[in-house]
Amino acid sequence: MSEDEIKKEEAEIKDEPVKDEPVSDDIETDDDVIEFEFNDDGEADLKATLKKIRKDLKEAQKEKAEYLTSWQKERADFQNYKKDEDKRRVDYVNYARERFALELLPVPKQGGMGKGG
Predict the structure, then answer these.
(1) Which residues of the chain have pLDDT under 50?
(2) pLDDT recorded at residue 32
(3) Inter-residue contact 35 to 52 (CB < 8 Å)
(4) CB under 8 Å, gap of 24 or more: what pairs does 114-117 form?
(5) What count of Cα atoms within 13 Å lies in the side-chain half-sphere of residue 103?
(6) pLDDT, position 70
(7) What is the reported pLDDT for 1?
(8) Within 10 Å of residue 96's Cβ, how many Cβ atoms?
(9) According to the model, what pLDDT value does residue 57 have?
(10) What is the CB-side half-sphere exposure of residue 31 using CA atoms within 13 A?
(11) Hey, which residues does 38 pair with through a beta bridge?
(12) Is 86 helix (H, G, I), strand (E, B) or coil?
């Protein structure tokens, strides 16, 4: 059993927080706290709160859809870019091979026999 495991067990027995334990993402932040709507008499108005939560949910879903659409477009653009680059690379290699072959092989000039022939 490692030292960390022993510390955790001892802390659980004593109901103490464990030192050096990573902070959990489950901790509520101010953004996670639901703001309740209240009636004039000070009691929580659950209908108004629910309405507000539904509105926030719709906005979040709309934003999520926009992000997803944008991400999909960017992904498609990147795939097209990769295909274009692959084609350019193949074209360049073919061009380089052609130039290399032309440098090695003498190519007769067009236009007949030339002078003196």
Answers:
(1) 117
(2) 65
(3) yes
(4) none
(5) 6
(6) 96
(7) 62
(8) 10
(9) 96
(10) 2
(11) 44
(12) helix
pLDDT of residue 33: 67
Q: Enter the tokens of residue 47.
A: 């209908």
How far is residue 69 CA from its own chain's centroid? 12
Query: In terms of Cα–Cα distance, which of 10, 29, 30 is closest to 21?
Result: 10
Task: State which amino acid sits at residue 28.
Answer: E
Q: Please tell me the predicted confidence (pLDDT) of residue 117.
A: 46
For residue 19, give the DSSP letter: T
Burial string for 34-60 (b: 16+ CB within 10 Å, else e) reads eeeeeeeeeeeeeeeeeeeeeeeeeee
> Which structure tokens are listed for 61?
């879903």
Residue 44, H or E segment: none
Token pair in block for residue 56: 């926030």
What is the per-residue pLDDT across 6-32, written as a single tens digit (0 to 9) for each?
677 666 666 555 555 555 555 555 566
Instruction: Write down the domain spans for the chain.
Output: 3-103
Tokens encoding 4: 């960390």
